[in-house]
């Protein structure tokens, strides 16, 4: 009984601390305007969405009927007209097949586009319709690793010339970690652990610690947003320090780890994040997927986009009455795009 009382008091204090911390920041209701498109997109779910140069939207998505295969397309955005027009589908051969079944794309410090296959991360430089292998890999079977890793590199960023930051995963349902890759000309390369991504040491599995990652090269700070836990983890890659921004109380039920629907059985806290050089935009639900759908149907959905500075402080909190599952912010910070169930919206922020 005493233990339960302590847990109850800790929960109350945590929630009260969050309310105190956020009450002094402005809450800004945002309205969404439909973003028209000249192309009918058949989207099952979006894996990645990014605005580049303030007027181009890159979408990596899975389509109905596929078995994990994904497409990457680019659209030009006309903010004044509230419309986007199709520009290009990437990595498509003349016979209709694709070079990458699960493409991962990112940009280097000079704005050049890089791409690789998610489970075979040998890097290619992308220039127009040309793909050129650059002789490097973020991770490969030859890489020198601190422990056995799944051959998959998620959320890649350029750390410095010839070095990459990404999220990797230990084999056999192990933990996730921020890793730094230093490729070599002979294909061996070296992988170093920067920090493990574990919210609660009792539940180290990547299943419990699933989420989204972003990195700011100028500040050398990385952030990870947990879906199952109400927290954003900040990692200072210069001095190795780390701290959490917390929102609300923990709701994760560890018993669901033994089930097949861990993500369906627990409230989703931070659904997605997007970032520019100044801020991190963190889409917060605090409810299960089914609850979100029910609330949308009843027109009672209430979500937030918590805008954080790169030092972890709150800048402001955007409130949304529309269910949004994916977001992307412009580099200028003037616009944000939201997506849900085949429809795109934008808002001036």
Task: Please describe the structure with a list of short key phrases separated by commas or semicolons.
26 strands, 3 helices, 349 residues, globular, five-stranded mixed beta sheet, mainly beta, disordered N terminus
What would you say this structure looks like, in words?
It is a single chain. The chain contains 3 helices and 26 strands. The protein is mostly beta strands and 349 residues long. The strands form 6 sheets. A 5-stranded mixed beta sheet has the order 1-23-22-21-20, sandwiched between helices. The chain has a 5-stranded mixed beta sheet with strand order 3-7-6-5-4, with no helix packed on it. A 4-stranded antiparallel beta sheet has the order 2-26-25-24, with no helix packed on it. A hairpin with a 4-residue loop joins strand 22 and strand 23. The longest helix has 22 residues, at 2-23. The radius of gyration is 20 Å and the shape is globular. Residues 1-22 have low confidence and may be disordered.
């Amino acid at each position: 009984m005493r233990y339960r009382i302590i847990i109850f008091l800790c929960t109350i204090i945590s929630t009260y601390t969050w309310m105190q911390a956020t009450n002094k920041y402005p809450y800004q209701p945002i309205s969404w305007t439909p973003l028209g498109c000249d192309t009918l997109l058949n989207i099952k779910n979006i894996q990645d969405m990014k605005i580049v140069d303030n007027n181009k939207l890159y979408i990596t998505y899975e389509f109905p009927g596929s078995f994990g295969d994904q497409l990457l397309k680019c659209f030009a955005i006309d903010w004044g007209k509230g419309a986007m027009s199709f520009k290009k589908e990437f990595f498509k051969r003349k016979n209709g097949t694709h070079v990458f079944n699960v493409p991962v794309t990112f940009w280097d410090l000079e704005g050049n586009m890089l791409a690789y296959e998610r489970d075979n991360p040998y890097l290619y430089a992308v220039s127009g319709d040309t793909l050129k292998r650059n002789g490097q890999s973020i991770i490969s079977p030859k890489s020198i690793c601190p422990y056995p890793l799944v051959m998959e590199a998620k959320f890649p960023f350029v750390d410095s010339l010839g070095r990459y930051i990404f999220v990797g995963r230990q084999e056999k349902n192990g933990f996730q970690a921020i890793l730094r890759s230093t490729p070599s000309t002979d294909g061996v390369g070296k992988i170093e652990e920067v920090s493990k991504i574990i919210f609660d040491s009792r539940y180290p599995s990547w299943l419990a610690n699933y989420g989204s990652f972003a990195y700011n090269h100028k500040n050398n700070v990385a952030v990870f947003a947990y879906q199952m836990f109400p927290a954003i983890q900040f990692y200072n890659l210069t001095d190795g320090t780390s701290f959490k921004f917390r929102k609300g109380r923990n709701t994760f039920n560890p018993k669901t780890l033994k089930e097949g629907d861990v993500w369906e059985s627990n409230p989703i806290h931070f659904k997605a994040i997007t970032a520019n050089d100044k801020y991190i935009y963190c889409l917060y639900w605090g409810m299960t997927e089914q609850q979100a759908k029910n609330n949308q149907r009843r027109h009672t959905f209430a979500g937030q986009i918590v805008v954080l500075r790169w030092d972890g402080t709150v800048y402001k909190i955007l409130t949304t009455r529309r269910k949004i599952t994916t977001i992307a912010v412009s580099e200028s910070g003037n616009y944000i795009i939201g997506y849900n169930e085949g429809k795109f919206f934008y808002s001036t922020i």
